[in-house]
Amino acid sequence: MRRQAHDLRRGRPCRDDALELLAAAADRGARGLKLYPPMGFLPTDAIVDQLYEFCSARGLPVLFHTGPSVPTLHANNAQPSHLDGVARRFPELRIIKGHCGHEWWESVAVAV
């Protein structure tokens, strides 16, 4: 059975209990994490590091939204280039770039 956990009202990784929620979801069978940077954070924000460490240790992939977003959100936070530093700091982290960068596709092609 496929399952997903989400809360669009509180879907930011800077919540105090983000790691706790991720661990509980993983214990219940979640197979990865999706992060949506246009919600107001950058993938390079230190607050997200604990989630990367957890996912690296458990072998869980992290899917990043790297495509278009609604104009009222922080669309530039979805640029694939923000993931370069994450990949360098967490070389074991399995990173998936959702939408292949869309209008930033050239930076994805160079990184591959």
From TrEMBL:
<feature type="domain" description="Amidohydrolase-related">
    <location>
        <begin position="18"/>
        <end position="107"/>
    </location>
</feature>
<dbReference type="GO" id="GO:0016787">
    <property type="term" value="F:hydrolase activity"/>
</dbReference>
<dbReference type="InterPro" id="IPR006680">
    <property type="entry name" value="Amidohydro-rel"/>
</dbReference>
<protein>
    <recommendedName>
        <fullName>Amidohydrolase-related domain-containing protein</fullName>
    </recommendedName>
</protein>
<dbReference type="InterPro" id="IPR032466">
    <property type="entry name" value="Metal_Hydrolase"/>
</dbReference>
<dbReference type="Pfam" id="PF04909">
    <property type="entry name" value="Amidohydro_2"/>
</dbReference>
